[in-house]
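Regression test case RT-17, inverse folding.

Input:
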């Protein structure tokens, strides 16, 4: 039988790994949205309205990346929820805009 709770802090390590994985998921997804928004804003070939919306999504993505970093450091559930909301919401908005355009 496998014994996980041997008094060596396995629950603490599991909690730390869970926070790390959740924060990294939100942070990487937010950073990808932020970089995609910046690229869509700067690269030629888009109209002004699309550039403005892409810039707004880049700001939301940057906010999500910041919240992911802060949530990992502070172990804050509200900040992690904000990071995941920014990451998933801006990704969904970016996909919807790309399919319409």
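Golden output:
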């Amino acid at each position: 039988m496998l014994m996980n709770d041997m008094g060596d802090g396995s629950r603490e390590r599991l909690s730390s790994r869970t926070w790390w994985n959740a924060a990294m998921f939100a942070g990487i997804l937010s950073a990808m949205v932020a970089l995609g928004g910046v690229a869509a804003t700067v690269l030629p070939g888009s109209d002004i309205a699309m550039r403005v919306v892409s810039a707004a999504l880049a700001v939301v993505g940057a906010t999500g990346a910041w919240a992911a970093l802060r949530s990992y450091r502070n172990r804050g559930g509200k900040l992690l929820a904000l990071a995941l909301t920014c990451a998933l919401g801006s990704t969904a908005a970016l996909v919807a805009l790309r399919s319409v355009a």
